[in-house]
Amino acid sequence: MDDPKNPATEQVGPISIDYDHLDVSSLMDQVKAAAARTQASDARSGPAFPAAPGTAPAGPDRTASAPAPGGPAGFKGKLKSIALKLMRPFFPLIRFLGLPLHQDIRETQRSLSETDKRLDALDRLLRLQEVAFEDKLVLAGERTDKTELRLDLLEERIKDLDESMEYIRLLHNLGHNLVVELTKLRIEFDTLKSKFEILEKDLDYLRARERALEETTRS
Amino acid sequence: MKTAFIVQRYGLEINGGAELHCRWMAEHMRRHWDVEVLTTRAYDYITWKNHYPEGTTEVNGVPVRRFSVSKTRNPVRFGRLQNFIFENEHKESDELAWLDEEGPTSPDLVRFLRTREADYDAFIFFSYRYYHSYHGIRTLPDKSVLVPTAERDPVIHLKIFKDLFRLPRAFIYNSEEEREMIQTVSGNTGVPGLVVGVGTVVPAETSAERFREKHGLAGPYIIYVGRIDENKGCPELFDFFLRFKAQTRSPLKLVLIGNSVLKIPAHPDIIPLGFLPEQDKFDGFAGAEALVMPSFFESLSMVTLEAWALGRPVLANARCDVLQGQCRRSNGGLYYASYGEFREALNLLLGSERLRAALGANGRAYFYANYTWDIIESKYLAFLGGTGGGGR
């Protein structure tokens, strides 16, 4: 019957303690579960983390559509835009005649040309590395073959060793048996020796008795 | 039975784990065996500088033969070499160079073992990782017994020790976890071994009031006893404790007993008391809600056993498999592997006096079943055999 002052179980927060079968492992399972629950609720109710300083907000890049610095502004700008509007129908002709292109287009072209040269250089490097890599692959293949050969040799040696171990075990057993047999023989030898000594003593005794009887008979 | 106990340092002033373990064992086993301690002249474990006089003296009735250390350790060179072998592919010769650098290098001690082997029936080596054990066991493997006092640190995985662990005639382990670890790294299941540990004696009388009065303590507290060091997990303990205080507004205090080698946070509820006499330590246990053991590496925590001997529960670092194993086997303590678990486990302990009493009672039963000196001595005698010759 449970003692009302000391019930078999006790509830401490989320953890139930069974004093009849107090088991630290099961208590720790409950502790771990409680810790995980608390951690989860902390994560849910906790303040949202502010974006790290310097991190750009998500969304379209506004600077992409922003006017270029130093763009048309004021009277000069207006004049330029009117001139461009008037010239628009002649643009294809201007391009066709190869008149000097706009500065930024020329810069772009130069940059593309540089990039092209770099790509060519990289391509050459890549080809060289490919050749070197192929050579290394061949070498690695040869080494793998050699390693496999060595492994085969090693396996053979292990087999030899296993056989040797077997022989050693047999020799050990043989040695053991020989020792046992020698011990038995020794014991038998000792027994026979004892018997021989007893017989020898009996014989001496009988001889003495014989002599005594002979003397008695003579007298 | 004439038995030599071999350890890197020996003396009443030395409170280190393996050294103290060896001294206690030698002092207790001299009732049964003819015991002699073979050690170096070193006192300082950083440099191994010769400190004690050479030759034979007597410490608490045990004859102690000291041998000179041939070269002191250069901590910088040793640290560099240790980093190299832990972080790089290396050869066995590098590991031997590391061992030589670690010390305490005493060729005289090894020479003595070689020449006087016949005079002793057994040689019990303490601490596998030092010069004396490596070279000593290799010199006389058939008469060697190793008490490895191994922790789960990278040294255990060095190749030289893998081979060493297969050599001794027998092992005496401190815990099941230590045995499992050594058998895993070396595969030495064929070498006989027994889990024994070390005993301790608790004073007949302790007083929580005396401790509170002497140190001006009021309110509940948990206690840590040991060197206040990073390796012992103290920085993490301080962090967890302060977070616990901030979250729960608990009046709990953390009392620290032991010398400090790091900066202790200045907080009114973290109370460092420094190194205290044994009686004060036990009085401190008596008044504590629990002992907290934040260490990551232990081969056997004597402090934990002492807390259990006094019926106090333990809150241990679960990442130390020895501590966790002891808590599970004894049912005498809880453990934590994260702050969340620390908070919940500590809340649970503080929330139920009945649970603290039950865990403490289990711990006490575990201590009296396994770690009293009578039991420890009888285990040594049953395992290594032989009586007589001693009994002075």
Give a written overview of the molecule.
The complex is a heterodimer of chains A (219) and B (392). With 219 residues, chain A is mostly helical. Chain A has a domain at 9-44. Chain A is built from 4 helices and 2 strands; from the N terminus they run ββαααα. Chain A is elongated. Mean pLDDT of chain A is 80; it is low at 46-72. With 392 residues, chain B is of the alpha/beta class. The two termini of chain B are 13 Å apart. The model of chain B is unreliable at 387-392 (pLDDT under 50). The A-B interface holds A 6, 10, 12-13, 15, 17, 19, 22-25, 27-28, 31-32, 34-36, 38-39 and B 318, 327-328, 331-336, 338, 340-341, 343-345, 347-348, 351-352, 354-355, 358-359, 362.
Average of per-residue pLDDT values of chain B: 91
Count of DSSP-assigned helices of chain A: 4
Mean pLDDT of chain A: 80
Based on Cα principal axes, name the global outline of chain B: globular
Largest sheet of chain A: 2 strands, antiparallel
Return the CATH topology of the largest domain in chain B. Rossmann fold
What is the count of DSSP helices of chain B, taking H or I runs of 4+ residues?
15
Radius of gyration of chain A: 54 Å
Query: What share of the residues of chain B lie within helices?
Result: 40-55%
Helix content of chain A: over 70%
Structural class of chain A: mainly alpha
Task: Count the E strands of chain A.
Answer: 2
Q: Largest beta sheet of chain B, briefly? A: 8 strands, mixed
What percent strand of chain B?
A: 15-25%
Give the strand line-up of the largest sheet of chain A. 1-2
